[in-house]
Amino acid sequence: MAEKKSDEKPKQIEFQWKGRDRQGTAQKGEIEAVSAEAATAALRQRGIIPAKVKKKPQPLFQKKEKIKIHDIVVMTRQLSTMIDAGLPLVEAFKLIARGSENGAMRKVIEQVAADIESGQPLQDALAAHPDVFDELYVNMIRAGEKGGILDTVLDRMATYLEKTEALRAKVKSAMFYPIAVIVVAALVTAVLMVFVIPKFEEIFAGFGTSLPAPTQFVIDLSRSFRSNWYWIFGGIIAAFFAFREAYRRSPKFHYQVDKYILKLPVFGNIALKASVARMTRTFATLSAAGVPMLEILDTVSRTAGNKVIQEAVENTQEAVSQGQRLSDPLEESGVFPPMVTQMIAIGEESGSLETMLAKIADFYESEVDAAVDGLTDLLEPIIMVVLGVVLGGLVISMYLPIFKMGQAIGG
Length: 411
Prior knowledge:
Blueprint (H helix, E strand, L loop, with lengths): L12 E8 L5 E8 L2 H10 L3 E7 L13 H16 L4 H11 L3 H15 L4 H6 L7 H13 L2 H56 L7 H37 L1 H13 L3 H22 L4 H10 L4 H15 L5 H7 L4 H13 L2 H58 L1
Antiparallel strand pairs: 1-2, 1-3
């Protein structure tokens, strides 16, 4: 028999516990450990004398809670306020955990508090949860701890998260509307093809005359759709998953798609402005925290959200490491609008780069808002016209033989 690998990690189990702290105050909560004994030992390290530790019962149908950006923003602002008020980190995290309404977020905060209490630095305790606290967040905390301005950095981080989430939501709303309408139109068309047009076909079979060309075309299309619907839908689903996997796994394909997106009319302009806003906001936030330039560029390239912009920032990082100014390689890339590179150049010359970057971010965030509103106003009449032509064309095609028969009777 094959031996088990010695480096396999034991499965963590959720336990519920009750006990008292060193002051004798009753406490209770949840903890993850490999066994009840391990949970008891971990609680004692936290200064808790456990009276009862039992495995948490699992419901038959458990819905996993998701941690949203809002939960992270609330935690970050609360932590900033408590640190500014002079509360110790561990106590601040424990208080935040008690007030957290999201169970998943509460567990993460409790684990961070436990890790800090056991001697880990705050940045390491947060980095242990990369799905919640990304590289940017951890870098900001590291810079704040080094500079002794953790409360200020946390406040800036909360503002950054709020602004980037608002921008992301705005872009999503711009994409959701046309996609939703197209999906609904496709479903309505499919229903007409499968259920409505065959009924008309039965009626027309008794006419004994040839059908108008548009009507015959729609009937033939309906027959073809009914015979091959599984190939059509299967092909669409297969194409979607193939595209998604290629986009994830092939850097070259990913780059080409992102490059094409930036060249799309209207949508490309929104995508570029959103990426520039995100990049400059991240840059300004990290710069305000005192993070070194090369580290900022490394983080910005990872959070760019577009491979073309990421490549431009990576090339800029290499040029800056060789002594060039920030604005020169950005301008040479040809990716960024002239206003962006000019304002960055002015910021470098005047020593107010952080301020200039924040102004660029504010400007392009407002530009995205205006572009999204304009796109919605533009798409509404176009979509209505397309729907009218497609659905109206199908209906008119089905009634042409009836109109023709009515004219013949009337004549």
